[in-house]
Amino acid sequence: MRTGTRLVAALAAIALGLAFVLPLWSITLEAPQYPEGIGMRIYVNTIAGATPHDLQNINGLNHYVGMARIEPDSFAELRWMPWILGGLIVLGLTVAVTGSRKLLVTWAAVFALAAVAGLVDFYRWEYEYGHNLSPTAAIKVPGLAYQPPLIGSRKLLNFEAHSWPATGGWIAITAFGVIAIAAVAELRSRRNVPRLAAPVDAVRGNGGPAVARQRVSREAGGVERRAQPAARS
Amino acid sequence: MKTQSKRTVIVAVTAAAVLGTLAYACRTGGAGAGGVPSDVALAVYVAPGQQDEFYAFFSGGFSGNLTVHGLPSGRLLKTVPVFSQFPENGWGYAEETKAMFNTSFGFIPWDDSHHPELSQTDGVPDGRWLFINANNTPRVARIDLTKFETEEILQIPNSAGNHGSPFITPNSEYIVAATRFSVPIPNRDVGIESFADDFKGTLTFIRANQPGEMRIAFQILVPGYNYDLAHAGKGPSDGWAFFTSYNSEQAHTLLEVNASQKDKDFIAAVNWKRAEECVAQGLGSAMPAEYAHNVLGEDRLARSEMLTSVTVLEAPTCTDMVYFLPTPKSPHGVDVDPTGEYIVAGGKLATVIPVHSFSKMVVAIANKEFEETIDGIPVLKYESVMAGEVQNPGLGPLHTEFDGRGNAYTTAFISSEIVKWRLGTWDVVDRIPVYYSVGHLSIPGGDSRQPWGKYLIALNKITKDRYLPTGPELAQAAQLIDISGDKMRLLLDFPTMGEPHYGQALPASIIKDRQVKMFALEDNRNPNAALGEDRAGVERKGNAVHVKMTAIRTHFNPDNIEGIRVGDTVFFHVTNLEQDWDIPHGFAAMGAQNAELLIMPGETRTLVWVPKRAGIYPFYCTDFCSALHQEMQGYARVSPAGSSVALRWGTGGTWNTATPVANDGN
What value of ipTM does the predicted structure carry? Predict the structure, then answer.
């Protein structure tokens, strides 16, 4: 593995550490009566209001339409999500230390899996809260559910609900993007080793001959660098 | 030929357009209704959703309270109750607030508030607090400007008619208070005709910069005149305070004639740093006195203490402390310019505005240029201290403020105008009529070291035909005047509450971002709070029934109460559980003989209710709180005296009979 990739892996793992303290996801509600917005932030281990009392106020407002109270302690996910995040960081650091290409690919795959699982779980909860309404609610609108969007914005009665990744989420997404690109690049460079003789055709469709020539030379350098540790071992 | 005709057409059209525009401009820029150019509308228009540039605080005069307006719009933003009970929100009725009204005369439900005064740092309004006086039963109050709420009231002993207060020193060391009526000190049963022998005035210095601990630092005993208004020195004159007096004739009856005979009365110049030295040297005497000090604490409970002594200084024993500056004809206002050099008097019956010079006064004192000595107080020679006289200032000059650009603005009550003149040359440079009979005027920071000299507010005593008539009692009013240019421009009339006696204003940016939005429920230390619906409940203690009730959108808990009997006194302790901005709840019960409650988020307030007859009594939320506000209601059942109906309560159909667990402070 190239030193650059190992550095990238180390940085991505360290950056992921910020996701322990920064919110991953943000749901913000805006209404005529709440021009300043009212919102909640999903952290790796809890759910909190955007301001200290927002969660209480969201629960207070939700009771009019019969939604269940959002109680952070009732989410089992919030107990084991920090362990998954920790695991991803450890895995990332291991990749950086060992330089194992296989581990890098595994890391990217596990990360992707965790992200998909997280989003699916998030959607499931949103559906649950939006549809499981008290039959004695003061406000009942036939056919209307109060499920916030997974990502994006949606009008729910007088509220416009916005659901977007928050700072920690964006860091995680960026980290994943970088890891994925690194993994793909590493995979490609390995594939390209025995095909040094005829790389131009392989990339012509992409960038033309000039680009292709650059890639050839870079990959050639890569081969040299890779050769060194092998010689030492 | 063709080209030329085209050019002619262009010239003609252009000329028409220019002329048309000019004609339109003349029309719109010219005088509109009431002599006011119609383009002033833009100068005061604050578009919907936009906020004003200044907060203005007007005393309510005989309403006893304070109103807050925005400038330049003149919009009324709030009434802050101070010295008068306010059934609208329960101030002085809610048990937690009653102690604010305690005095040595007992519970006083009303007063007459005249002069709001913003706290200052380095001679500039800092937006921490606003002080205001009570005239009738002498007191001063401190209002916190993060909550717009009265937090502290101190009674002033040895005073009667606390008009000359609460004017502040440049770093809020003291607010001063001068007694309007001289009285026997200590007050006692004497013949009124013994005025000249037994009646004295006091000038009181109140420590102002320690919230919750306002104290009378010292009182200075002065001759038995009427003391009227005051202002502290600043810059070179920092350390001094100036008080006007009238009735040096010492009349005790028909003052309008008997107190208007002498050509000159006095401004008392007090060296308060010297007074501090005298106190430190033990030259003051401790005089027994009884006066109340009331504080609304951090726990939002008002408490009273009765203080029993005051330190009194007298001129003969503390020399070099007080001097009299002779000042023409019953001076009213005394105003110190931003540089601290000029002391402007409003000789209300004088034909000139006399201006004293602080530096000349210092020299005159050093040279002992005295006319005479009254009760140990040297009277300086008028010519020795006079800086100049403003000639032809209008009739009945009362008060002066400054724009920081070398201009002074004086109100003329009788000729109903504001006169602008130059400091130093004493030339009148502009005048503008006001409608009608202006008393005080106010420029934001206009009595401070750094005026924001953009607007001037005239505070008028009479409105006559200015507004739609409303029977015998008409609106009192303020008028907004643009003073940013060479000529004053009248911009706006707006009615005010009570008598808008005096006002102070400051840029909104100084305080608007420091506003308290709610009280944290976890900090609620009210012993009768129910800090959660599971803490709500009812308890009988003899004939007292204590209801610890919660309010949250959109129900009370409990909202059904049974087992109250005729002869009981019911205490509704209502805790607003909301922790959301702008969601107060109200509480009103049928037949309540006091008021309602407005309870801010996180706060607990208590209303006492004594039902007189058996029956069902509804109670409800009075502050429209949510879509289901009309559902926020409940019933109290009152049974005859001696009835065996059990005490029980609940919300949502579940009845409770057990006393709830006491709050453990969580």
Answer: 0.78
- Shortest Cα–Cα distance, B149 to chain A (Å): 23
Domain containing residue A201:
196-232
Kindly report, residue by residue over B183-212, the tens digit of the pLDDT.
999 999 999 999 999 999 999 999 999 999
What are the structure tokens assigned to B205, written together? 């210095």
Residue A210 contacts B, CB cutoff 8 Å: no
pTM for the model: 0.88
Same domain, A154 and A207: no
Interface test with B, best of A36, A56, A139 (most B CBs within 10 A): A56
Residue recorded with tokens 């339409």:
A65
As for how many domains chain A has, the answer is 2
Is A209 in the same domain as A151? no
pLDDT in tens, B115-166: 999 999 999 999 999 999 999 999 999 999 999 999 999 999 999 999 999 9
B628 vs A53, A57, A138: nearest CB: A138
Cα separations in angstroms, B118 against B399, B484, B647: 18, 23, 51
pLDDT score recorded for residue B36:
67
Task: Kindly determine whether residue A53 and residue B552, on different chains, have CB atoms separated by under 8 Å.
Answer: no
Chain B positions in Cβ-Cβ contact with residue A57 (cut-off 8 Å): 578-580
- Please tell me the distance in Å from B293's CA to the nearest CA on chain A: 36
pLDDT digits 0-9 by tens, B353-371? 999 999 999 999 999 999 9
Query: Do B288 and B196 contact (CB within 8 A), yes or no?
Result: no
| Same domain assignment for residues A178 and A202 | no
Kindly give, in sequence order, each residue whose CB lies less than 8 Å from that of residue B394, ignoring residues fewer than 6 positions away: B410, B412, B414, B415, B417, B419, B431
- Please check the confidence at residue B68 and state whether its pLDDT lies above 70: yes
